[in-house]
Each structure stands twice: as structure tokens, then as C-alpha cells.
TrEMBL record:
Domain of life: Bacteria
Active site, per annotation: H95 (electrophile), E167 (proton acceptor)
A matching Pfam family: TIM
Entry's family note: Belongs to the triosephosphate isomerase family.
Record-listed substrate binding positions: N10, W11, K12, G173, S213, G234, G235
The protein's name in its UniProt record: Triosephosphate isomerase
Main location as per UniProt: cytoplasm
EC number from the UniProt entry: 5.3.1.1
Gene Ontology MF terms: triose-phosphate isomerase activity
Function field: Involved in the gluconeogenesis. Catalyzes stereospecifically the conversion of dihydroxyacetone phosphate (DHAP) to D-glyceraldehyde-3-phosphate (G3P).
Subcellular location: Cytoplasm
The entry's keywords: Cytoplasm, Gluconeogenesis, Glycolysis, Isomerase
Amino acid sequence: MVKRKLVVGNWKMHGIVPETSIMLEKLKKEVEDIKKVEIVVCPPFVDLYTANISVNGTNIELGSQNVFYEEQGPYTGEISPLMLKGLCKYVIVGHSERRIHFLETDKIIAKKVAAAVRHGLTPILCVGDTLQDFNDGFSKITILSQLQAALHLITKDEVAKVVIAYEPVWAIGTGKNCSAKRATEVAKDIKHTIAELFGKAISEKMRVLYGGSVKAKNANVYFDDPDIDGVLVGGASVDHFEFAKIIKGAEKHTK
Ligand code: PEP
């Protein structure tokens, strides 16, 4: 089955509300002819409403960078899946910056994944090894245990809807992207584990992305690989020109 490549931009904590439409206007012009790539932009929560109006009727989808697992209640500062429904299609869950700075555990992440799918949002679940894991030979165990833990509250059919992003912590924001060979090995391990846990049909439907210091100059190596279904781009996605170059690369590499 040929899947459309998915290119996701995580703006992180960049972009104030008045800049959102300007940034998206520029991106829209650059990518208006793109047909074979699914484009997703994940701005900060407060920019989503404006962004939603801006991308309406275009080939750009939106995602949020986080979600809480309850629908409503006394959870000051949190944003629920009910609030995001209608504003965006995707939601990033378990980003390493949230695991590290906000102490999100596998247990919390599993609840967020379940809440997102049950409200019709598509989770982009981030899993990844630290430099310590990598040096100690524990990368595979870390990645696959994060994967298994995050998916344990949802059904087989719901698992098929989840997008997995392999994001080595040592590659995020460091300029040291992971080789395509290694990213492919990990993507294969992830798909193999999904097949073992939920069946081959589910693993074949599922998309696995690579993320970590992806730039226009290194992105194309990931698009050549049939086991990598796209990329999650952080820093480089804030520059509309650079992000569009990555998207155009994905389009060119799609048969
Ligand atoms: C990210 O934030 O998910 C990411 C991959 O960041 P960067 O591209 O900046 O490494």
C-alpha cells in the first residue's frame, strides 16, 4: 500500500497570534501546488483559532502540540480534546520536551493518546532514546517500551490511526540528525512490534515518521525510504521557506 508522505511542522513555543496568519500565508503560497504530501502545522494553542481560519480550504492541516486527557474540570491551564476538536486534526503527544520539562510519564501519555483518538483527533506519538540509552545500547528497549506503554489503553482499530514519530532525544534541536539507515531500522522495529502486538494489517496501516534536526539539506534521505512515512520538523518548520523546501522534497520523492 502506497501511503502519502506526511510532513509535520512543530512550531514549539514560537509565533505570537498576529504572526500566525502571516507565517501561514507565506507557507500557503509556497505549497499550493503540493498534491502528494500531507502537510501539517502545529502552532501553539493560542494560535490555533487564527490558524484554523487561515488554512481553511487549503492543503494544510493543523495539529496541536499537546492535549490533556480529561474533557473538562478543575485542571487549571490545561486544554482538553473537546476544545481542540474542530480546530485541528492532529495532536502531538509525548514529545520529549514534555517528557523532560513537564515530567510526563508513559502513564500520562497513554491517557492522552486514548483521549485524543476517542475524540477523533489523530495522535502523533513521539518516542525516542536519549544519548545515554544510545551509548549504553538501550535504545531499542527504551523506544519499544515507550511505544507499548503509550498504546495500551486503546483498541487495535484505534492503534491503526496513531502516527508514531521516532525522535531520538539526542537529535532534537542539536543539528545532529539520525542517519536514514538507523531511522529505517527503528521504523522497522516499531512496525514489527505493532504487528506482533496488534496484527500485521494494523502495522501496515500505521505511519511512522522520523524527527530530529530535519532540514531541507538532509530531509530527502528519509523520503527515499518506504519504511519512513514522513518527517516531524521542529526548528526548521518556523521558517516557511525552509519548511516548504522539505515538503517539496517529499513531493518529488513520492512516486
Ligand atoms: C521536534 O520538535 O519534534 C523536532 C524534531 O525538533 P528539531 O527539528 O528542531 O530537532
